[in-house]
Amino acid sequence: MKRYKKTVLKKIIFLSFLVMNVCAGAQKDSLLYLFRSAEQQLMALRQPLFYSRNQAERTEANKEFIEIWETIIENPKVLHYPFDSLKKDVSFLAPKNKNFRLITWDFRKDDGTYLYYGFLLVNNSKRVKVGFLKHKTIEEYETFQLVDKSDNIKSPENYIGSPQRWFGMLYTQLIDCGDFYTLIGWDGNTKLSQRKFVDVLYFRSNGTPVFGKDVFKFPKKNPKRLMFEYSQEVSMSVKYNEKKNQIIYSHLAAREEGAPTEGLFQYYGPDGSFDALVLKKDKWVTVEDIDARQEKSKNDNATKPDPKKQKAIYDPKKKR
Q1: Which of 291, 174, 311, 196 is nearest to 244 (CA)?
Q2: Helix 55-72 and helix 2-44: axis angle, to 10°?
Q3: Which of 13, 110, 219, 239 has the highest CB neighbour count under 10 A?
Q4: First-residue to last-residue Cα distance in the chain
Q5: C-alpha atoms less than 13 angstroms from C-alpha of 200 in its C-beta half-sphere
Q6: Confidence (pLDDT) at 126
Q7: How far is CA 159 from the centre of its chain?
């Protein structure tokens, strides 16, 4: 009788475990379906939002785009869904530990200026000690909509913002600097000039996100972010070199030094030289006029073999 009871109990435990796994699998499949469905809806808006010539059509598409994001960002699992089909037009950045995800995109206006939109999704979960050798995880997840206030900001380099009062841009690269994150961004600005930025994101002890921080040692100024403005007709490089731990950027100059165009940034562009920001003791320090060429390979200086001393793999003159 006891043996029979044990067998029944084992079956009940097994069935309970099976049901739990089936439910978990169904929930996972349901979430995957939700995210895929949202991605397809967002993709359907890609053409009118980013490529339509009609601003009213772009505006309506952008409104729908935001509404779709709002239906899925409250679920923390969205931090890990790739959204691969959107990456051509929407920027997705995250640190290696996936503690947050920064999503941004641009909106082109008919007058040549730009607005920026996005979300910052943050996993603030913490593992706390609750007893001797016992810990528990306190789940905490927050979402922040990024509200572009750049039109009202007169001094972008000195501005410290928040998600609700954000100096908008399209972020293209994220660098984990320990206590803060460095962001490289782009702004279309106007029909005449465009801008690139080295911005900063950090989190206060209570989890509040802040954009802009005093981490730059730059000649003649004490900025909270760096701004480079230059002509719409040229390209400027601002990239992080992981091997060197440097942000290497084109040095900008007016077309003619001392000419009336000096100070008019629509006439500025790269002069062929490069400067860098090097991270030293939690500060980005400027190094001017660096050699930005790629590091040489170990084979670059190898001696070429003497063809007279080389054996042919196949000699057609030799009889076989």
Answers
A1: 291
A2: 170
A3: 239
A4: 87
A5: 25
A6: 74
A7: 20
Compute the chain's Rg from CA coordinates. Answer: 27
Please tell me the predicted confidence (pLDDT) of residue 27.
Answer: 55
CB neighbour class for 290 (10 Å; exposed up to 12, middle 13-18, buried from 19): middle
Q: Parallel, antiparallel, or unpaired for β 100-108 and 114-123? A: antiparallel
Shortest CA distance to 221 belongs to which of 156, 265, 163, 164? 156
Residue 225 within a domain: yes
pTM (2 d.p.) = 0.82
Rounded-to-10 torsion of CA 169, 175, 176, 181:
-30
Residue 211's domain comprises 153-294
What does the alpha-carbon distance between residue 267 and residue 256 come to, in Å, rounded to a whole number? 9
Domain count of the chain? Answer: 1
How do 226-231 and 238-241 pair as beta strands?
A: unpaired
Query: Residue 13's pLDDT is what?
Result: 42
- Kindly state whether residue 232 falls inside one of the protein's structural domains: yes
Which of 182, 197, 183 has its CA nearest to residue 249? 197
Q: Is residue 269 part of a domain?
A: yes
CA distance 131 to 174: 38
Whether the CB-CB separation of 183 and 165 falls below 8 Å is answered with no
Residue 4: inside a domain, yes or no?
Answer: no
Q: Tell me which amino acid residue 38 is.
A: A
